[in-house]
Specification:
It is a single chain. With 289 residues, the protein is mainly alpha-helical. 54% of the residues lie in helices and 10% in strands. The chain contains eleven helices and nine strands. The strands form four sheets. A three-stranded parallel β-sheet has the order 3-6-7, sandwiched between helices. A two-stranded parallel sheet has the order 1-2. Strands 4-5 form a two-stranded antiparallel sheet. A hairpin with a 2-residue loop joins strand 4 and strand 5. Helix 4 runs parallel beside helix 5, helix 8 runs antiparallel to helix 9 and helix 10 packs antiparallel against helix 11.
């Protein structure tokens, strides 16, 4: 029930669905409860009262590798619940995962550790989020598209289509792997765009050209837009750095040289260093004055 889970739950609540939030963080649950939402102190209790579970846990990147420990922890609890339940359930994963993870980790774990049959007693789907940290709930209600990765297309996964239909006509049903890569390709393109315009800004500085005028002149092209064209700001936040690093590493492991993504990361590091230097100079001047 962090940024993504809270926005997803509150969004569907506003659409008229009954929601129960669960999280290992008691503080998050207290905040949600104080705001009038139903919460559960136990995951099994939440699952027993619902038809669909949205799994929104973090998948951070450490040393350019994706950390799936929170996914595995959630899968352990989900399998234990399914083994003792007679209720059909749809498990929807929203966490950012590299191509192949849904099949090789999520699906594989549940089929090995769950006595119930997928497609009959439970089903899984992948529904990547495209929510910004500071405007997650607003973004939930104005999606450019909804991506649903699934395999069997039964009545359980059709529920997911039905609850998203009030939000957008742009719903894409595809494979697990395509849905996973759509999420990464989207974030990495944004990283690429930001680094590209930072490199243009560095050229402007070298030639004595006003980078703001150049950015404005390019961004007015409707095919390009204003986002990410400002010089001097590296891509940061919770998603872009970790996802770009993870995909670059993933591609290299698959023996495809990610030259472009490595250049993107190198430019971003250059801008980060430049920004840090400016901050240090500014701080030194303030101290001196």
């Amino acid at each position: 029930s962090g940024v993504v889970g809270s926005a997803t739950g509150q969004g569907f609540h506003k659409l008229g669905h009954e929601l129960i939030f669960y999280d290992i963080s008691e503080e998050k649950l207290r905040t949600l409860k104080s705001n009038g939402f139903n919460v559960a102190e136990d995951l099994g209790d939440a699952l027993s009262q619902t038809d669909i579970a949205f799994v929104c846990v973090n998948t951070p990147t450490h040393n350019s590798q994706q950390d799936l420990s929170q996914i595995l922890s959630a899968l352990y609890q989900l399998a234990n619940y399914l083994n003792s339940s007679n209720k059909r359930h749809l498990l929807v994963f929203r966490s950012t995962m590299l191509p192949g993870t849904m099949r090789s980790v999520v699906l594989n774990y549940l089929e090995k550790n769950c006595t119930k049959k997928r497609g009959v007693d439970y089903e899984i789907a992948y529904n990547p989020e495209f929510l910004r940290q500071n405007s997650a709930l607003e973004d939930f209600f104005k999606p450019d598209r909804v991506i649903i990765g699934e395999e069997n297309g039964n009545d359980l996964t059709k529920l997911l289509l039905e609850i998203y239909q009030p939000l957008t006509k742009h719903i894409i049903n595809t494979s697990f792997e395509a849905a996973e890569l759509i999420k990464y390709a989207s974030n990495c393109f944004l990283s690429l765009k930001i680094s590209f315009f930072n490199e243009v800004g560095l050229i402007c500085k070298h030639l004595g050209i006003d980078d703001k005028v150049v950015s404005l002149g390019v961004s007015l092209d409707k095919r390009i837009g204003k986002y990410g064209t400002e010089f001097g700001r590296p891509f940061d936040g919770m998603c872009l750095p970790k996802d770009t690093q993870a995909l670059a590493s993933f591609i290299k492991e698959n023996r495809i040289e990610p030259d472009l993504l490595e250049v993107v990361l190198n430019i971003n590091k250059k801008i980060e260093d430049l920004t840090t230097t400016k901050q240090l100079v500014s701080s030194a001047r303030e101290t001196h004055s």
